[in-house]
Amino acid sequence: MTSIMSIIVHATWDEEASVWVATSNDIEGLAVEADTMEELAPKVEAALADLIEFSTAPHLRFKISLSISCRSSSLAFPTHGAPERGRLPSGIEGAAGKAGCHYHRPGKGDHEIWYSPITKRYFTVDHSVKSRHTANAALKQAGLPKAF
Question: How many other CB atoms are there within 10 angstroms of residue 30's CB atom?
C-alpha cells in the first residue's frame, strides 16, 4: 500500500553561520544544514528517508510531497570542525549523552541517526554543525532544552 505523506520543511538562512538550516513540524527528528539550497535539498531527502524508516508505520510505502519554505535569521555559534563519526558536535554531545541519548547508525546522507530515551524517537544530527539553530533543533528533537 502506498500512502502520500505531505511534509513541509522550513529552511532558515543563518546569516552569521552562512548556512541554510532545515527543520520540520511534520516529521520528528529533522535538523540538517548546508551552505546552499542546492546542497540542502538532497540532505533533507536523505534525512527524511531515514526518519520515515523509523516511523510508526515502517511497513507502508510513502510517496513524499516535499515543500521547502525559506526565511532569514541571524543565529550562529562558533564552528569547532566536523565531529568524529558516532559523536554529536561539541556541546550537544555532553547534553545528549547525560540524558542517555545514543548513536544508532550512520544516515543515508551527511548525517547520523541518534536515539533519545526521553522522546523515544530517532533524530538526525548533521556531521558538521555551524548554526546554533541546528544544534538547538537537534536538542529539541532529543527532548532537551536549548543550550546555544
Answer: 24
Instruction: Please tell me the pTM assigned to this model.
Output: 0.74
Hey, what's the cell of 63? 510517496
Q: Is the pLDDT of residue 32 over 90?
A: yes
Distance of CA 76 to the CA centre of its chain: 16
In this predicted structure, the answer to whether residue 26 has a pLDDT above a threshold of 50 is yes
pLDDT interval class at 98 (50, 70, 90): confident
pLDDT tens sequence across 66-79: 566 666 544 333 33
Residue 5: which of 51, 74, 40 has the closest Cα? 51
Grid cell in block for residue 121: 524517537
- Print the SS3 string covering the chain: CEEEEEEEEEEEEECCCCEEEEECCCCCCCEEEECCHHHHHHHHHHHHHHHHHCCCCCCCEEEEEEEEEEEEECCCCCCCCCCCCCCCCCCHHHHHHHCCCEEEEECCCCEEEEEECCCCEEEEEECCCCCHHHHHHHHHHCCCCCCC
